[in-house]
Specification:
The protein is 34% helix and 10% strand. It is α/β, with parallel strands linked by helices and 265 residues long. The strands form 2 sheets. The protein has a 5-stranded mixed β-sheet with strand order 4-3-6-2-7. Strands 1-5 form a two-stranded antiparallel ribbon.
Length: 265
């Protein structure tokens, strides 16, 4: 199939709209059998009345891809990377061995996935590099696994796509799919997250980013009052409450650690 003709089945649970740019492409396993209709079955589960409190942007099996959440919306797939990530679910299990990842079904699944991920790397200016947990905490941009997100942000205990996932072979497939559009990671202009995505804000600031901060505070249970774009006393108190709750210095200034604590939630 072509990644330009992916069917869409809306997941039941997701967050409409996203405030941040897409920085990371997160690889998952569905923990479901390798069957011809696994992508369709999991997409239907995400959409159905018994849907879990989870979703992903794409489900991929050996012969098909189904999109479940639009790129411009937030899927609930990897806490800590939901706000700035896309989630890609693959038929199979984290416990698969290297041999399991080399059978005909898995090879076809990985080739389909690599073509899709290559397209997303081009669309969102993401370098083809595998990120470890320290890279994620440092704000690097690239491709990673759910396990690395779990280790980086301590918001889940999932270990997929597993220790035998063929990372280097997969990255080679992505590079091949990109063709002449591929740029070495060290030279890629999008290797680091733009500081402007999470600017340092303090009392007296105003504008869109303050509104975003206020909405995020409210979502996390720290009421700043109206989301009016003005960093006033209510927002100050909410920031200080959030900082205290996360063991940070309660100085009322929303800097990198405060943003990280709020976004990882």
């Amino acid at each position: 199939m072509s990644v330009t003709t992916v069917p869409f089945v809306q997941a039941r649970n997701y967050t409409g709209g996203r405030a941040n740019a897409i920085d990371v492409l997160v690889i998952h396993t569905m923990e479901s059998p390798e069957k011809p209709d696994t992508a369709e079955s999991v997409a239907a589960w995400f959409a159905g009345s018994t849907a879990p409190q989870a979703s992903a942007h794409y489900c991929i099996d050996g012969n098909s891809i189904v999109q479940c959440v639009r790129d411009e919306d937030v899927a609930w797939h990897a806490p800590g990377a939901n706000h700035n990530g896309l989630g890609f679910e693959h038929a199979g299990r984290a416990a698969q061995t290297a041999h399991d990842w080399s059978d005909d079904y898995s090879l076809a699944c990985l080739e389909l996935s690599a073509e899709l991920v290559a397209r997303k790397c081009e669309e969102h200016h993401i370098p083809v590099v595998w990120l470890q947990s320290a890279d994620l905490r440092a704000g690097r941009r690239g491709i990673t696994g759910h396990v690395q997100v779990s280790d980086a942000f301590k918001r889940s205990d999932h270990r997929d796509p597993g220790t035998s996932f063929p990372v280097q072979r997969y990255l080679a497939l992505v590079r091949a799919s990109m063709g002449t559009a591929w740029v070495p990671p060290a030279e890629h202009r999008g290797k680091d997250k733009a500081p402007s995505q999470d600017p340092t804000l303090k009392q007296g600031a105003n504008g869109y980013q303050v509104t975003r901060l206020q909405r995020l505070l409210a979502q996390r249970g720290f009421d700043p009052g109206a989301a009016d774009g003005d960093f006033g006393p209510g927002t100050l108190r909410a920031v200080q409450a959030a900082q205290t709750a996360h063991g940070l210095d309660a100085d009322g200034i929303a800097g990198p650690l405060t943003w990280h604590a709020l976004l990882a939630g």
